[in-house]
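Lesson 9: reading folded outputs for more than one chain in a single document. The general rule is that every protein is listed as its sequence immediately followed by its structure tokens, and records are never interleaved. Here is the first one.
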Amino acid sequence: EFSASGLLEGPDLLRRGFTSVKNELLPTHPLELSEKNFQLNQDKTNFATLRNIQGLHAPLKLQMELRAVKQVQRLPFLYSSNIALDTLRGNDESIGFEDILNDPSQSEVMGEPHMMMEYKLGLF
């Protein structure tokens, strides 16, 4: 959690952001944990249904496609819409909460491009 300069330095705020007590708390509402795992649970259900209807090859093919799409990314300091991932999951035709209130132009997360690339490549 500390920077490479030494243990006497503070946490690296540029890469990790500010620490928050809220992130370390347990879920306060019974549905909070269910909502966090919604996409994972939905994927498991879809894969089980696909396996029952089309056989073992269909969920394996879809999982390989999802894994390949997740590896394709833009540079770390640029916003990526992940349209291919949304298309595979069937979310491309629906408008959700994150489509309206998650505008990348209003995002406060923008770092030094050179430093972020060096960190991603393991040079820093």
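And here is the second record, again sequence then tokens.
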Amino acid sequence: MTRGLSRKETAPERGGLVSRPCSCCHRHPVCLSASARRPIRSMSGLRVYSTSVTGSREIKSQQSEVTRILDGKRIQYQLVDISQDNALRDEMRALAGNPKATPPQIVNGDQYCGDYELFVEAVEQNTLQEFLKLA
């Protein structure tokens, strides 16, 4: 799902922006290819890897803070839920270059931006655009 815009702005019936659908069924932003059995997704744009299934309050809090800040600054991003498929978790860890990386992890296109600590540091130093590789 694409975040950073209100429901009103993303509703197609109101002429707003719509995230691009997957290439295999054209209904979902992320979909499994029947042939490859791995996610098919555009590698462009800002992605925040997160999980909807965790017992860690710290991870939940960090994910919430990242999305709250991005929403507050009206920066568009795609939220990728790694709990939906182990391949997404493996993809996140490969991009981070750390086999034990945990959410949230932030990526722009195929370029790794960083984790929560680096994100917060960039916000505090007012270098978020550079950190997210948007500038």
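What the second record shows: Confidence is low (pLDDT under 50) at residues 5-28, 30-42.
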